[in-house]
From TrEMBL:
This is HGF factor. Keywords: Disulfide bond, Kringle. InterPro entries: Kringle, Kringle-like, Kringle_sf, Pan_app, Serine_protease_kringle. Residues 98-131 form the Kringle domain. It comes from Daphoenositta chrysoptera (varied sittella). The keyword Cell division does not apply.
């Protein structure tokens, strides 16, 4: 990133157009607010600013200019997808990516088996290998 250039906060999100997530599990949290741009929504989600939960995704209503921050994403149990022309869904790449980048210290995905089908070792376990 060059001097004086601001990084676009949307870079950390995967966009799916015309999709909204509906929570079936009532314990999942959502917060909404009127905001003019998806960039503002992304910045707040990335920083968890003003949220009582870790923001994993947000949906932006293009008609009402309302941001819906979500404590869940499309891979969370108790969530269903709904086609909706007013919304664009933005999910944090860290929570939906199925690959490890670098040493995997920031990996938050859902893959827990190796390519050959062997169950991965838990991070808090020293068996069968020490860290």
């Amino acid at each position: 990133e060059g001097k004086g250039k601001k990084r676009n906060p949307l870079h950390d999100f995967k966009k799916t157009g015309e999709l909204m997530l509906i929570k079936v599990n009532k314990t999942l949290e959502v917060k909404t607010k009127l905001l003019n741009t998806t960039e503002q929504c992304a910045k707040r989600c990335s920083r968890n600013k003003g949220l009582s939960f870790t923001c994993k995704a947000f949906a932006y209503d293009r008609v009402t200019k309302r941001c819906h921050w979500l404590s869940f994403n499309s891979l969370t149990n108790g969530v269903r997808k709904k086609q909706d022309h007013a919304f664009d869904l933005y999910e944090k790449k860290d929570y939906v990516r199925n690959c490890i980048i670098g040493k995997g210290a920031d990996y938050k995905g859902t893959i827990s088996v190796t390519r050959s089908g062997i169950q991965c070792q838990a991070w808090n376990s020293m068996i069968p290998h020490e860290h």
